[in-house]
From TrEMBL:
Gene Ontology, cellular component aspect: plasma membrane
UniProt KW keywords: Cell membrane, Disulfide bond, Glycoprotein, Immunity, Membrane, Signal, Transmembrane, Transmembrane helix
Protein name: Ig-like domain-containing protein
Any one Gene Ontology BP term: response to bacterium
Transmembrane regions: 122-146
One family name in Pfam for this protein: V-set
Organism in which the protein naturally occurs: Oncorhynchus kisutch
Main location: membrane
Domain Ig-like: 8-101
Amino acid sequence: MINYSLTPVVSASPPPSVVAQPGDNVTFHCTDVTGAPGHVGWFKQDNGSEPLCIASMYSSEPTVQHHNGFQPSHMEMFISHRNIFLKITEVDEADSGVYFCGMFDKYIIFTNATVLKVQGMYLIPLVVILGVVTAALPIVFLILVLKIRRDTKRHNTGRSPFHDNMGPIQDPDTLNYAALNFTSKKRKMERRREKELDPHVVYAATR
């Protein structure tokens, strides 16, 4: 196991970014610029903290050592023709960070800094929910408009505008009975007047 005293890495210009979804496989690579056999490795830095060595190996040997709890089943390092690779299998949000390729000589040379951004799974259901809500809003609005129009129409047709002036509407049979009763009373009054006039008396106008 190799122990080095490392200091936080500060980049003069923003490194390139790689955006991945959870479950994707991501591979980084760099070229050994030392030109001589030596130790090489991959490092990860989170939020400007001290870089942590993921894995290291001697460039002329196939044996790889993993450090700081990183597992070979998740992060695989290998060399092919002076090209140094780091393959991350099925990334998740915890894999987000800045990755460096390091060569060990008299001091450590960091090259090929790359920012890995793993998007959270919560973004997908959030987009789906927003889409459903947006699609449902016009339907809800239409239902409210139809309900208001129906209630307004029912209010207008359920009460006559002359209801307050005319009083309660009576039953047709009651109206017919009232009309017959009025006619009967009128006939009785006419007969009573005829009886009061004596048919045997002749009335004449005198001067």
